[in-house]
Amino acid sequence: MCRGHFVNKVYENIVGKLNLSLRRKVPQVLQTEAAECGLASLAMVCGYYGMHIDMLSMRQKFDISARGATLSSLIAIAENLNLKTRALSLSLDEI
């Protein structure tokens, strides 16, 4: 590896950690169970708005069945987290 390539990698690593942009980033929250996608999505939305909550806390606070969450249960959880919600219906072409 040449010195210039190494210096570029170090620079990219430092800049990536500084987050100098004015845009907020969506944190990555990983689910461990297939049925946790709704909780993980809500945890990422919370993180975007500055309310960082981990999956362990989400699991402890909100009971999700092994079959996952319904739209109405996700709305209730979101409202419990002080998020405002509304359901929309879009076709694939509109996304």
Shape: elongated
The helix/strand order is HHHH
Quickly count the domains: 1
Helix content: 40-55%
Assess the beta-strand content as a share of residues.
under 5%
Q: Quote the distance from N terminus to C terminus.
A: 43 Å
- Largest sheet data: none
What is the gyration radius calculated from CA atoms? 18 Å
* Overall average residue pLDDT: 86
What's the β-strand tally? 0
**Low-confidence residue ranges:** none
Tally of helical segments: 4
Which structural class fits the helix and strand makeup? mainly alpha
Organism: Serratia marcescens
Protein name: Colicin V synthesis protein
GO molecular function, one term: peptidase activity
Topology of helices and strands:
Blueprint: H1 3-18, H2 37-48, H3 55-61, H4 71-80
Keywords:
95 residues; mainly alpha; 4 helices; 47% helix; elongated; Peptidase_C39; Colicin V synthesis protein; peptidase activity
Question: What do you see in this structure?
Answer:
One of its GO terms (biological process) is proteolysis. GO terms for molecular function: ATP binding; peptidase activity. This is Colicin V synthesis protein. The chain is an all-alpha fold and about 100 residues long. It has one domain (about 5-95). The chain has helices at about 5-20, 35-50, 55-60, 70-80. The mean pLDDT is about 85. The chain is elongated and about 55 Å long. It contains four helices and no strands. The relative contact order is 0.13.
